[in-house]
Amino acid sequence: MWKRLGGRVQWRLARFRHRTFLVYAGGVVRDERGRILLLRHRLWPAYRAWGLPGGYVNAGERLEDGVAREVREETALEVEVPGPPLGLASGFRHRVEAYYEARVVGGRLELDAAEILEARWFPPDGLPDEMSPRLRKVITGFDLKPG
């Protein structure tokens, strides 16, 4: 049922349930050419439907484990999260976001159709127009090492 609710309803319910703040962890998954995996999310508005794989971290879960779990749930890819966060952000009230580089170590790209419409690899300088300006700024601000 959660996946059928719209993003705004999910956000309101999450805020009601978690009165303090929410922690979101996103994965910057890149291929051997340095392109970034972006997902077109079913529940996000069309004008900003593209984003990184990621989601809310469970209570007691390490951020790195949350990234690996969310990437696996949304794409069926197994990733390792080798280092410290690439960056922290907060574009929403009561929400903290941590972004980590994630390396594919297994699995085959299969999308969770309930959440994800499409997946594509984009060069860092060729991100899609249908992405929030805030997330674009976050991604382009990362100090990404060559693929």
From TrEMBL:
Keywords annotated in UniProt: Hydrolase
Gene3D superfamilies in alphabetical order: Nucleoside Triphosphate Pyrophosphohydrolase (3.90.79.10)
Superkingdom per UniProt: Bacteria
InterPro entries given in the database record: Nudix_hydrolase (IPR020476), NUDIX_hydrolase-like_dom_sf (IPR015797), NUDIX_hydrolase_dom (IPR000086)
Entry keyword annotation includes Hydrolase: yes
Pfam families xrefs: NUDIX
Name recorded for this polypeptide: NUDIX domain-containing protein
